[in-house]
Every structure is written in C-alpha cells, then in structure tokens.
Amino acid sequence: MSVVIHPEAEYAAFVAEGRLMLQRVRGTGEYVFFPRVAQPGTGNADLEWVEASGDGVLYSYTVTRNRPPAEDYVIALVDLAEGVRMMSRIVDCDLADLTIGMALRARAGAVDGTPAILFAPAEGPAA
Amino acid sequence: MSAFPRGRTAIVGAAVTGIDSRPGFSAIELLARAALLALADAGLTPADVDGVFSTLPEDPFSAMSVPEYLGIRPRVVDSTRTGGSGFQVQAMWAALALDARLCDVALICYGSNQRSGAGGLVRSGGAPFPYEAPYKPRNPTTSYALATQRHMHQYGTTREHLAEVAVAARKWAQLNPDAFSRDDLSIDDVLGARMVSDPLTVRDCCLVTDGAAAVVMTRADRARDLANKPVYLLGAADATWHRNISTMDDLTVTAASEAAPRAFAQAGVSPSDIDVVELYDAFTINTILFLEDMGFCPKGEGGRFVSDGAIAPGGRLAVNTNGGGLSCAHPGMYGLFTMVEAATQLRGQAGDRQVAGARLALSHGNGGVLSSQAVTIWGTEDCL
C-alpha cells in the first residue's frame, strides 16, 4: 500500500519481484492500468498500489508464428477481475484449447530471460 | 455542428510515384518527385507553394527539410504524426489554413523507400510501450490480429470473409497499372498462405513497398482558374481514442465511428450517397471494421457485407479502387494514397478502374493500431 511516486519504475520493480500490482484510486476504489501519475480522465493523483487478485479472462489472443527453431508464442489481452485490461502471454495451454472468455490465472515468469507477468488457464498447474 | 469550410478548398493537383520500388532513391527524393508531379499536374511550381504539410517516416523535422529541399519558404507548416491518418488530418488543417488566408497553396506530401532502402520495415513509430514490449508483440500485425480474433468471436466473422477483402483489393489492383501486386489471387490462396499471426496470413497483411504521394490544395476561387477539374473538400474530421492496442476499449469498434459521422455532417451527405470509398486497409480486418464504423453496414455485419465480391469491381460498393494497401502500395504510411485515388476517381481519370459517374468520394486514414481515425469527404463541383 505504498504511495505511488514513480509509476513506471515501481511497476517494473514489482514485476521483477514476480508481483502483479495495480494502481487504485483512494476514495473511489477504481483501478488504473497501465500505471500512470494520475487516473486517466479525472486526473486524480491520489493512487495507491495494491496486489492484483491474479484472476482474469481472455479477451483476445493471437499466435505469433515463427520460423523454426524459434517457437510460436501466444500474445493475449487479459481482462483482470479488477476491471482493467493488460497484454500478456498465455503459457501452459494447448493452442486448440485457447478460447476467448476462458478463465486465466496470473503467474510470475519471464520472456527470454526478462521477468514478466504471464497467464495460464485457471484450472492449470498452480503458480 | 462545426463551421468547417465546406467546399471552399479543393485538390487541384495529385500524384503518386515510386510504387515500383526501384532502388536508389532516398525517401525525400521520392517525396520531392511526387510533389513536383502533383504541382505540375496543377500547373504550378514550388514557388507557388506557401503551405507545406509534410511527412517522412524517419525524419521528425520534415517540416523544415521538405521546404528546404523544394526551395519553399512556407508561411504555414505542419507534420502531424498520427501514423497513416496524418494526411487526412493535414487536409483538414490545410483547408482551415487556406480558408483563413494563412496560406494560398498547400502541398501535402509523403515519401518512403522502405522496401528498397531499408530492407524491411522502416521504424517510424516512437518509443516501445513498456506495458506491451516485454511480451514481444510483433506490431503492427499482433495488434490487428487481436482485433480480428475478437471480431470473429463476437460477430461470427470468418477467415473467408477476410479473404474476400484481399481478393477484392487484388481485382481492383489488376485494373490499376500502377499497382504493385497484380497476379491472380483466390480465396483459397489467401486461406492457404503462410500464417503470420493467427488468424492473419501474409495475404491478410498489406504490402511493403516504396512510394510517394502528393496533393496540392487551394481555395475554390483560385482552383477554378487552374487546369484540372477541382475536387472539393466537403468534410474532414478525425478522432483519436488510444495509442496501444491494450488500452483500446472495444477492439471491434474504432474511432472512425466518431470521425465519420462528423465528416458526413459537415459534408451534408450520408454513407449511401458515397460513390467511391477509399479505406486504409493495412490488414483485411480494417476494411470490415471501417465499413461498419462509418455506417456502410451495421456493426458486426462487415464480413457478410463484403462476401460474394460485393466490394470488388462490379460489386455493390466500390471500395479501395486502386487496389488498396493490400495490393496497390503500402510504403509505411498509406493514407495519402487514398486521397490521391479519391481525387483521381472524381476527376474521371482512373482508366479501367474508373467508377462511372463518381461524384462523391470518401478518403480515410488509419494511424497506429486502429488508434487515430480520420475521414475526408470529397465531391465534384455539382456537389457544392
């Protein structure tokens, strides 16, 4: 519940720790993502960091095709339970099982060695 | 209701060049060749120009480098960077500047050598977005694929519908000697092409070509004294809703749904009046989304609307009559090419692809990843 001072740097630091953190407007409880110095539209800068539930739903996805030996990967837009949307990758899911609307669960991971918040099917292996 | 100067400015010269992607020209050389062709088309020279609206993909200072190159000391400059829609935005500002007598002759111009010069995509887009870049989206394709997948899920749009868009564009291109890709293309060819980013194959994606385009605008009173039949600007509006695909509210509804009604209101016409529709088709989903958002068909019906060759030559609506970004040209930013084609059609100079009796044309630009949408509506003298 720290005060938000440097949104971009602080978010990156949370991700490096494997945590998905969202900004929330004190008073209204509305969530903000991507992290900003103020809530878009209202300009309300009274924001705090809170841990996301990690629950989400698949809004859309695409399989990025690569020439071997590079592997294909799934880029997705995930609607979080908190009402905000983020880009991520879907892991541990057969391509044939990808369905818009499927329940997803966030997990700490990495993309090519760089820490990132990833998503897997909610009924899949626990994080 | 805005006080847009309907019909008080016009295109009097227009040109495209360099689509054939012959190596050896820089971007500004291509731009200058198009500018000089458009000026010659109008019977003018660089010395007549006092408003320069320029774009070069890799030069953020084109508002100075283009006047320098052409030998112009402009009273008005602009280099709006909203991606491929910047040219329609510039036409709007050029009309206002001309009407306010801030300038008398406006040159809108663009050039890119991205196929022959860069050996791939020219990096014209700003800093990476820190909340998407770590996942390595391959933009712009990733973003348009996400929109496509969502439209298919929500409205039952199929890959065959998408392929119809590509095939229609190719059939128009086969009537355009300037178009880059003119080989036969079938629905099965599109469906069987290499998958790039599901559900988009390489044939659902625009070309990568060189190319340059330019138009010359002036006030209507002066336009009537020049060589060509003026093509009057009746309405122009743009709308910007986001920059990055992850912040777009509904991936099936673009800001064209806001820009187009404003442009139609300024022009005093409706979608059913339009004879020629020139849309920014960077990907096959674009044509479907924009036909819906601009009111040519209901939301969600775009796929069915384009079926059975409905937007191909001889179909129910003439769409992207030059072959579009899919089959004519796509030099990084394509928006100015839709404006040149609209003018060519309204001047009755489109050759084998001429739409008989065309009086009203829509020229649209799309920038970013469905981010900036700009719509211009043009008409012949009898539409004033």
Please give a structural write-up.
The complex is a heterodimer of chains A (about 130) and B (about 375). Chain A has about 130 residues and is mainly β. Chain A folds into two domains: about 5-50, no CATH class; about 55-120, OB fold (Dihydrolipoamide Acetyltransferase, E2P) (Beta Barrel). Chain A has one helix at about 5-15; strands at about 20-25, 30, 45-50, 55-65, 75-80, 85-90, 105-110, 115-120. In chain A, strand 5 and strand 6 (about 85-90) form a beta hairpin. Chain B has helices spanning about 25-40, 60-70, 85-100, 140-155, 160-175, 185-190, 220-225, 255-265, 285-295, 300-305, 325, 335-345; strands at about 10-15, 50-55, 75-80, 105-110, 195, 200, 210-220, 230-240, 275-280, 320, 360-365, 370-380. In chain B, the strands form two sheets. In chain B, strands 3-2-4-7-1-8-12-11-9-10 form a ten-stranded mixed β-sheet, sandwiched between helices. In chain B, strands 5-6 form a two-stranded antiparallel ribbon. The interface of A and B includes residues 15, 35, 60, 61 and 85 of A.
Number of strands of chain A: 8
Name of the CATH first level of the largest domain in chain B: Alpha Beta
Characterize the main sheet of chain B: 10 strands, mixed
How do the SSEs of chain B run, as a string of H and E? EHEHEHEHHHEEEHEHEHHEHHEE
Low-confidence stretches of chain A: none
Instruction: Please report the distance between the alpha carbons of the first and last residues of chain B.
Output: 18 Å
The total count of helices of chain B amounts to 12
Distance between the termini of chain A: 23 Å
